[in-house]
Amino acid sequence: MPRGFAHIERTLAGLLVPRFFAGDASRVGSQTPADLDDRLPFAQVSKTSGGRTAVDDNPVVDVDVFALLDTTAWELASAICDFLLTKPFPLDTVYCPDGPRELPWRADGAIRRYGATYFTSLRRVQL
Question: Taking the CB of the first residue and of the last residue of the chain, which one, N or C, has fewer CB atoms within 10 A?
């Protein structure tokens, strides 16, 4: 089998779904779904930038948590941050320079959003 870099959005979703969403993969995605109100709480995982060498992939990733209640969004975003900072496999390094913090979402305030940015590093793995 060839060696390559793990897809960071799928990798993080695979780590978050069993730990924070009771195995419900519909609650984590790289885009907010049209029926977001029906899937709360929801975590959006998005690669925003990042460099690569022959040895390392260094994706920068935003993880935004959406929930009905401010406390739910904050607590889940904070718990995800604490978990990712433990560097679960296949992550080699994780640094959170920004977050979790409240971010604007809808003008009516019906859904609360907290996000964090993560600088990550991964080595090549068997695909």
Answer: N
Average pLDDT, the chain: 94
Whole-Å CA distances, 31 to 1, 45, 46 = 30, 8, 8
> What are residue 107's DSSP bridge partners?
none
How far apart are alpha carbons 10 and 95 in whole angstroms? 19
Nearest C-alpha neighbor of 60 from the set 92, 32, 96: 96
Helix (H, G, I), strand (E, B) or coil at 72: helix
CA atoms within 13 A on the CB side of 102: 11
pLDDT tens for 40-84 read 999 999 999 999 988 899 999 999 999 999 999 999 999 999 999
Q: Which pLDDT value is given to residue 101?
A: 97
**58: helix, coil or strand?**
strand
Which residue spans within 8-55 are E strands per DSSP? 28-29, 42-52
Residue located via tokens 């994706």 = 59
CB 60 within 8 Å of CB 49: yes
